[in-house]
Specification:
Its EC number is 2.7.7.7. Pfam families: DNA_pol3_delta2, DNApol3-delta_C. This is DNA polymerase III subunit delta'. The chain is elongated and about 75 Å long. The protein has helices at 8-15, 35-47, 62-68, 81-86, 102-105, 116-120, 122-126, 148-159, 179-183, 195-204, 210-216, 221-227, 230-244, 251-258, 263-283, 293-302, 305-319, 328-341; strands at residues 24-28, 75-78, 136-140, 165-171, 186-189. It is an alpha/beta fold. Helix 8 links the parallel strand 3 and strand 4 (165-171). Helix 11 crosses helix 12 (221-227), helix 15 packs antiparallel against helix 17 (305-319) and helix 17 runs antiparallel to helix 18. The N and C termini lie far apart (55 Å).
Length: 346
C-alpha cells in the first residue's frame, strides 16, 4: 500500500497539522482516485510506532503488523458487507471490521448499507482505553452507505467525540450525507489528478492506451485501470459501435443481447454515451468517447435536442431503480426504443 503521486500535496498538508487534527475528517471526491488507500495510509501512519519523516507508516513495527493484518486494537473499519466481500472477504472476518458477517453466515444476500448495529458497537470501542495510550481511529467507507438510522447513531458519537479518537469518513457523493454529519467533519476535497500524472501512472501499470481508458473513467486513474481489461474494452466498443450506427440498430435485438450483461454496466455505458452526445450537440466536446468523436459528430446533426434532454432524464430516473429487481429485457427494450426515437428521420 503506497501513496499515489497525485496525493502527495494533500498528504503533506495533513501532516503539517498532525498534532492538531480535528475529531472527524471527510475525504470527498470522485470514485477511482484512491481515497480509501489514502485514508488507510493516514490511519496506519497515525498508529505507527516509528513513522517515517513524511508521516508514512514504517511497515516494520508491531503496530504496522497488526494494522496490515486488520487486527490493530485501536482501529476499526466500518463498511457494508457487500463491499467487504467484494474486496476479498478479509475485512469482514476481522476483529477490526465491526459486525459485517451475520447475513453472510445466514446465507442472505450481502447488504449494500452499513448496519446500525455496526455503529452501535462502536460505543463500547470508543469507551475503552487505547493501546499504549495512543490514538483510536475509525474509518467509515463509504459514508453514503449509512442509512438514516445508522447516520443518526453515528451522529451521536460525532457530537460528543471521545478523546484521542479520529473518524475518517470517505464519500464519493457528499450530497447524499446528512447535513449534520457533514457539519461535524472537516472536509478535505480530493480532486482528480492532473491528466499527465494519471497517464504516467497508467503507463507504469502496463495499460496499452492510458489516455483512452482515462477518458472513459472521467479522469479517475484507478477506475481507468479497471477499465483497461481487454474483454471489457471489446464489449464496450461493440456496444458503443451499435449505438453509433443508427441504420443498422435494432432496439429489440440489442435488448435481447444485452440483457445477458450486468444491467448496471449497460446503464453506465448508455448514460456516458448520451452525456457525450448532448455535450457534442451543445458545445462540440467529447469527454468519455474520444475514439468515437466522429460518430458523435454525425449523430449530433440529426438528434432532436428536446428529445435528447428528455431521454437523459429518463436514464437518470431509471438509474435510481436499476439495483431493484427488474425485468432486464423489458427495461432495455424500452430504453433502446426510446433511444432510436430521439433522432430525426434522415
Amino acid at each position: 500500500m503506497t501513496l499515489y503521486s497525485w496525493q502527495k500535496e494533500i498528504w503533506h498538508r495533513i501532516q503539517s497539522r498532525k498534532d492538531n487534527l480535528p475529531h472527524a475528517i471527510l475525504l470527498q471526491g470522485r470514485t477511482g482516485i484512491g481515497k480509501f488507500t489514502f485514508a488507510r495510509l493516514l490511519a496506519q501512519g497515525l498508529l505507527c510506532e516509528s513513522p517515517l519523516n513524511d508521516g508514512l507508516p514504517c511497515g516494520q513495527c508491531a503496530a504496522c503488523g497488526w494494522f496490515e493484518q486488520m487486527n490493530h486494537p485501536d482501529y476499526r473499519l466500518i463498511e457494508s458487507e457487500a463491499l467487504s466481500q467484494a474486496s476479498g472477504g478479509s475485512d469482514d472476518k476481522s476483529e477490526s471490521s465491526v459486525g459485517v458477517d451475520e447475513s453472510k453466515a445466514a446465507g442472505k444476500k450481502a447488504s449494500n448499507q452499513i448496519k446500525v448495529s455496526q455503529v452501535r458497537e462502536l460505543l463500547d470501542f470508543v469507551n475503552l482505553s487505547t493501546h499504549r495510550s495512543g490514538m483510536r481511529i475509525i474509518l467509515v467507507h463509504p459514508a453514503e452507505s449509512l442509512n438514516i438510522n445508522t447516520a443518526n447513531a453515528l451522529l451521536k458519537i460525532l457530537e460528543e467525540p471521545p478523546p484521542k479518537t479520529l473518524f475518517i469518513l470517505i464519500t464519493h457523493q457528499p450530497q447524499r450525507l446528512l447535513p449534520t454529519i457533514r457539519s461535524r467533519c472537516q472536509k478535505l476535497d480530493m480532486p482528480l489528478p492532473e491528466k499527465s500524472l494519471a497517464i504516467d501512472w497508467l503507463t507504469g501499470q502496463g495499460v496499452d492506451d492510458p489516455a483512452l481508458c482515462l477518458a472513459q473513467a472521467g479522469g479517475a486513474p484507478l477506475a481507468a485501470l479497471e477499465l483497461s481489461n481487454a474483454t471489457y474494452q471489446q464489449s464496450r466498443k461493440t456496444f458503443v459501435g451499435e449505438m453509433s450506427e443508427l441504420k443498422q440498430f435494432d432496439p429489440l435485438a440489442a435488448a435481447e443481447r444485452y440483457q445477458k450483461i450486468e444491467l448496471t454496466l449497460v446503464m453506465n455505458w448508455l448514460q456516458k454515451w448520451i452525456y457525450d452526445l448532448l455535450s457534442f450537440k451543445m458545445a462540440g466536446e467529447v469527454l468519455y468517447h474520444p475514439d468515437f468523436a466522429k460518430n458523435l459528430q454525425e449523430l449530433a446533426k440529426t438528434v432532436n435536442l428536446s428529445a435528447l434532454l428528455n431521454y437523459q432524464r429518463e436514464l437518470i430516473a431509471t438509474q435510481r431503480v436499476v439495483n431493484h429487481p427488474l425485468n432486464a429485457l423489458l427495461l432495455l427494450e424500452s430504453l433502446f426504443l426510446s433511444y432510436a426515437d430521439i433522432f430525426e428521420p434522415v
